[in-house]
Structure to design on (229 residues):
């Protein structure tokens, strides 16, 4: 009965590869997010998405793209992975823009 | 753009004592939300407490309470009767009141809280 789930939990891959991280929420929320936590534990918003708009943090490279097949899912696709992409990626969801965000367990990505 | 500052990279407290983690923020908005999240070694992000800026009353959740000073743009977290399970990174976060848009949280850099037995 996990509220926000992510797969995989760990991902090790080679530079230049393309990978995806899946996120699913069973809370019935209408807004989902992706955050990146770097090696210094700093968390930064990457994307926010609801059925009205996608907000992209301007610092996110266009190699990153969110894809939402339905309201319960927001997957993260990363093309041409670079060493600097190594981080923990968190998915989150909320009911509406003003409500509390609930986070998934995170996906640790290591690019070699 | 909003910024959130946590000036204490690390804090240490004896078990059963009280500790206060500080957070300041910068914004030109009048309506917004503030949060404290806890991240234990399991790396799960757990909501500790939430405060709406329009509410003057400080939020409390059991042993956790905040001191919200809107004019000073300060939002500190007090943990009473500290327990070993409170050991974690604590993040202060800000969220604009966007009235329908999908805005993310702006986080501070975190405070690592150590509980001494």
């Amino acid at each position: 009965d996990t509220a926000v789930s992510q797969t995989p939990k760990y991902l090790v891959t080679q530079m230049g590869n393309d990978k995806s991280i899946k996120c699913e929420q069973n809370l019935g929320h209408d807004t989902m997010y992706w955050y990146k936590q770097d090696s210094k534990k700093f968390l930064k918003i990457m994307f926010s998405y609801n059925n009205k708009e996608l907000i992209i943090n301007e610092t996110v490279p266009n190699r990153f793209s969110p894809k939402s097949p339905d309201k319960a899912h927001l997957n993260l696709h990363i093309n041409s992975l670079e060493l600097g992409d190594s981080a923990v990626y968190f998915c989150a969801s909320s009911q509406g823009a003003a409500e509390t965000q609930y986070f998934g367990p995170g996906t640790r990505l290591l690019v070699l | 753009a909003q910024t959130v500052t946590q000036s204490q990279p690390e804090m240490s407290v004896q078990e059963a004592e009280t500790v206060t983690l500080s957070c300041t923020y910068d914004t030109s908005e009048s309506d917004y939300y503030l949060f404290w999240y806890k991240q234990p070694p399991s790396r799960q992000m757990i909501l500790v407490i939430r405060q709406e800026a329009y509410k003057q009353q400080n939020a409390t959740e059991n042993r956790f309470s905040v001191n919200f000073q809107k004019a000073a743009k300060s939002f500190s977290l007090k943990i009473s009767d500290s327990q070993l399970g409170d050991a974690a990174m604590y993040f202060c976060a800000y969220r604009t009141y966007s009235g329908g848009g999908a805005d993310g949280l702006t986080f501070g850099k975190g405070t690592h809280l150590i509980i001494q037995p």
